[in-house]
Amino acid sequence: MVIEQETINMNHNNSNFTCTVRPTALSRWSINTSIGILIATFSFNVTAETTTHYYDGNTQHAIKLQPNLVAEFASNASAQARSTENANTKRPFVTIRKNVPLASRAAGSATSQSPVFREGDSPAGRLMALPGGVIVNFKPDWTDDQIQLWAKTHSYVIKQKLNILGNWYVIDTPPGLISLQTANDIHETGEVLSASPNWWKQTVTR
Amino acid sequence: MLPKSFIFKLPAAALFALTVSSGKNVAASTAWDPATPDRVTVSTIDLGNNRYTNVVATFNSVISIGNGAPTHNYDSYDPATGLLTISTIKVGTATYNDVVIAITGVISVGGVTPINATEPSTEIIPNDPLFADQWHLKNTGQTGIDRVAGKIGEDLNVSQAWASATGKGIQIAIIDDGLDIHHEDLNVVAGKSWNYITNTYGDPSSTIGSHGTSCAGLAAAKGNNGIGVTGVAYNAKQVGYNLLSVTTSSFDADSVTKDLQSNHIYSNSYGAADNNGLLEPSAEAWQQAIDTGISTGRQGKGVIYTWAAGNGAPEDRSDYDGQANYQGVLAIGSLNDQGTKSSYSEPGSNLLAMAYGGEYCSSHAVTTIDITGIEGSNDGTSNPEDYIGQPNYTRCMNGTSAATPEISGVAALLLEVNPALSWRDVRAILAQTARKNDPTHSDWITNGGGFHINHNYGYGVVDAAAAVNSAKTWKNIPAQKTATASANLTTPLTIADNNAATTSIIKLSNSGIHKLEFVDINITSNHPEVGDLKITLTSPAGTSSTLTTVHDCKLEDITVSCGSSLNDGMRFGVVRLMGEAADGNWTLSVRDGRPRDTGKLIAWNIKAYGY
To answer: Helix-strand-coil percent breakdown of chain A, rounded to 5?
Structure first.
């Protein structure tokens, strides 16, 4: 991770952003992206230290938006994508920039940026960002065919089955808030055991 | 490697608590040289069940000299008085018998053999040139940059284990910032490392540092090959996964389950940021991945996950780390070359055992490999504290990061000598054979299972030779049972502000667990400042385990609120209750140690693991 301090004061006049999560059956990020439908169940102001949440298992975790930080991902797709360009240029996967507005304010836009959150409500909370993707734990009696059908029904694209016990899959989404929205949306339907964003989390060597 | 000017002062009573070099040495005659009047070279000394050879010791006075023929054909040492009785000593052309001197320290010891043993010592000294600097493998009193000598014998005692195992047939996955798969002193499995930048098999060379490569060297750098350094399991093979290049939740889970069919050990020297005092829960997908590895890896015997306990002392405790405190991992702390806690090494009730990460390069860190060439931490020219002209190696690796792959290496030795060991067997062996380092430390207690434990040291420092010997004849522990119970809090319990502790009791019955291995504790509280709380769990046997202490949280060295981290619930893990019975009253104590913020204990439960 690289943290840079920008010296240019950025204009935040247009940074207010509201996005929504539709009921699961309709919450296709591609649709939200293209037409920016706002159905007010999820409201977000990226200029304030807004507290929101995500789910991990059955636990709801509080997170706090860091309005002065933006995460830029080296790949222009999700973390699941294969980016030889990145591999060749040896760019860091994520760069946290200070005082830079999100390049795109539209939910679900094909951007390599994400807002940055801190875990919990401490000012020192672990930095987290959204490189794209949702990790879904399906009920154990669901077959792979059922899961594929569920994904197709909801216009989700399954990128990967995790090599762990249970029915854990990664669903593709673009980077950014849409990943969080989609995860919360899926989780709150109760159709699955859990759904969490595929977080990038600040991690250090010891 | 001891400099000629070096004189090491050691309490006489501890003189022969030593690990020494090859027992095949031919003993020289006992002699005193006027050119070095403060020291004497002693041919053989019998102490306890061992015979030490070629001991060079310092002394400050001659107590007596016998008049007649020597009464023994060997020399003897009395730890109680610090007196050494030499049967015969040559001084120039003269010979004296039954000379008694008061010794003050030891400079070196040539070898040791068990008395009455039918076989010579099995110690192996690798021919790798930098082995002499690897005090964590064999501490002969080497000095660091600070010129302070290490404590002789404060090491992994692995040279005595190498005759039994060197890691052959064992594969270790280094999950880190990368791995120099072409390094001259690494034995890397071709084509089986993973590059998370491309998310494919490939070259996981680091884009951000040499950390993973140095960890790999500590675990399993090639040994006895005449170059570089020696790894603990120097014939083990390795693969590298550069997870830290792309630390996403899905890759977190993926990395610890990748190639479960071929990896035996996953070495993990990373985690949430240290030094901030925050509680950091682990993700459920990652937990499930660990559960997958310990239940399906190695054909059901489970792979071994070693995990760095953390470098955030004093603010941080390893207890706060939801990965290091998880049941399926072995949390490893760090000692310095004196055998005491490295200044940064975090305490914790989850801490299993210790290895050696040293302090800092400016004092005494550990020697291992570095990225080939001028990249990495040592470019071979610019850092006078590091090896000049040897950019492929470094003496500046440290941290619980360094200690952890050392234990990965020890685990490889255990699995080689006894492939039937389960991951739980490995954990039990490491705990049971650990040596009680820093024995006068005030936190040492004996738990209800008869184990010595310490929040700073876990069960003590890993003794590789003892662990390997134990593994040879180890009988697998029975299948694991679990038992859960929750506190019956019909109304949340008020935590009195800056006052006496609130306590709550859970009674666990009929668990069938007579020997605990691990305990999870889930705690939910709406207290707005977790930094105000000291939380302690007391087992039915009366063993107290600290989970949190009153502490500050830090953001870039500025004190900030730790927040209400227990509001969402937090799982803690306790490994220091091995051998105790699970049934009985478990007492949770929550004390608010600072004024102003108030809150309540809303819920808590335990999950006991054992057999």
So the answer is: 20, 30, 50
Residue B131: burial class (beta carbons within 10 Å; 0-12, 13-18, 19+): buried
Number of A to B CB contacts under 8 A, please give it. 168
Q: Which CATH superfamily is domain B481-610 in?
A: Galactose-binding domain-like (2.60.120.260)
- What the block records as the tokens of B466 is 């003892």
Catalytic residue among B98, B128, B176, B319: B176
Greater pLDDT, B352 or B44: B352
pLDDT digits (tens, 9 = 90+) for B493-550: 999 999 999 999 999 999 999 999 999 999 999 999 999 999 999 999 999 999 999 9
Element (DSSP H or E) covering residue B213 = helix B211-220
Spell out where chain A has E strands. 2-4, 51-56, 59-73, 94-98, 113-119, 127-129, 134-138, 158-161, 167-171, 194-197, 200-201, 204-205
Which chain A residues are closer than 8 Å to B249 by Cβ?
135, 196-199, 201
Determine the CATH number of domain B132-435+444-472.
3.40.50.200
Residue A97 within a domain: yes
Q: Does B311 touch chain A (CB under 8 A)?
A: yes
DSSP class of B88? E
Distances in Å between the alpha carbon of B124 and those of A78, B132, B154, B559? Answer: 51, 13, 17, 50
CB contact under 8 A, B207 and A91: yes
Question: Number of C-alpha atoms within 13 angstroms, CB side, residue B599?
Answer: 24
Decide if A206 is inside a domain. no
CB-neighbour burial class of residue B128 (10 A; exposed 0-12, middle 13-18, buried 19+): buried
Residue B215 near residue B404 (C-beta atoms within 8 A): yes
Q: Which of B211, B264, B364, B551 is catalytic?
A: B211
Q: How many domains does chain A have?
A: 1
Q: Is A55 on the interface with B (CB under 8 A)?
A: no
Round to whole Å and give the CA distance between A84 and B602: 50
To the nearest whole number, what is the mean pLDDT of chain B? Answer: 91
Domain extent, residue A158, equals 2-201
Put simply, whether A98 touches B (Cβ < 8 Å) is no
Q: Whole-angstrom Cα distance, residue A21 to residue A195?
A: 14
* pLDDT given at position B517: 98
What pLDDT sits at residue A77?
A: 39
Q: Hey, where are the domains in chain B?
A: 12-121, 132-435+444-472, 481-610
ipTM: 0.80
Task: List per-residue pLDDT tens for chain A, 206 residues long.
Answer: 234 433 222 233 333 322 222 222 223 333 332 222 233 334 456 666 789 999 999 999 999 999 999 999 986 434 443 333 344 445 688 999 998 777 644 444 444 899 999 999 999 999 999 999 999 999 999 999 999 999 999 999 999 999 999 999 999 999 999 999 999 999 999 999 999 999 999 999 99
What pLDDT does B27 receive? Answer: 44
Quick check: B262 contacting A, CB < 8 Å? no
Rounded to an integer, what distance in angstroms lies between the CA atom of residue A178 and that of residue A201?
Answer: 17
Query: Binning pLDDT at 50, 70 and 90, where does residue B115 land?
Result: low
Q: In a 3-state reduction of DSSP, which class is residue B285?
A: helix
For residue A117, give both structure tokens: 């959150």
Is A63 a domain residue?
yes
